[in-house]
Amino acid sequence: MTQPWPLVDAKWPVIGPPKSLAELLNRVEELDTRELTALAKRIGIRPPDVAGADEWPIVPEYSVDGRFVALVWDDPAEDAHWLRRSVTTPRPPA
What we know:
Layout: H1 21-30, H2 33-42, E1 55-57, E2 63-64, E3 67-73, E4 83-88
């Protein structure tokens, strides 16, 4: 299966600038767990220390049309952390 965008190596996905919010969300949605976790590490997202879902905003380069995409740790209590994406607008506080 061909990746929708190139990978620099097995850890760091390279995502070019999206042309629309829909394209950005589709790209994040298509990442597998390994790629999504690598993306989270690349932009400085760490899993929460306690159980519960916390949102961590993506850096501004991942904003489209005034909306920002956040990655959410679904189940921090599990050994394998799964991430999902959500849209936040306006920009979350720093």
